[in-house]
Amino acid sequence: VQLVESGGGLVQPGGSLRLTCAASGFIFSNSYMRWYRQAAGKEREYVAFIDGSGGFTTYGDFVKGRFIISRDNAKNMVFLQMSSLKPEDTAVYYCNYEQHWGQGTQVTVSS
How far is CA 80 from CA 8, 74, 76, in A? Predict the structure, then answer.
């Protein structure tokens, strides 16, 4: 199993970013996928979940409609569209499948 995140970077408050997780080594279309994040000095935090079809999603309480998780099963990718970003969204964002994790992508929200 391999999960490779990309799309992080520096963005101003109120801005947007789209994270991508490219997955391989398992049957992606059957698999539940999740995004987590970890800010410096804090525990890893649940961000979003999507089922295999993409028809069911859930989000952490802090998201409050600002993020959208989606997937492209033809490309074995899962996405996290983030908007109205706040400084407190600064963290390393990780893609997760069962016990497998990607290396993470850094998101920094700062003016």
Answer: 10, 17, 14
Residue 88: φ, ψ to 5°: -75, -5
Report whether 51 contacts 29 (CB < 8 A): no
Strands 91-97 and 33-38: antiparallel
Beta strands 9-11 and 105-109 are: parallel
State both tokens at 46: 């649940």
Predicted confidence (pLDDT) per residue in 8-66, tens digit:
999 999 999 999 999 999 999 989 999 999 999 999 999 999 999 999 999 999 998 99
Q: What is the pLDDT of residue 1?
A: 97
Give me the residues paired with residue 78 across strands.
Answer: 21, 71
81 vs 76: CA distance, rounded Å: 16
Report the alpha-carbon distance of residue 29 to residue 66 in Å, rounded.
Answer: 25
Residue 95, pLDDT > 90, answer yes
Question: Which tokens is 15 given?
Answer: 């801005």
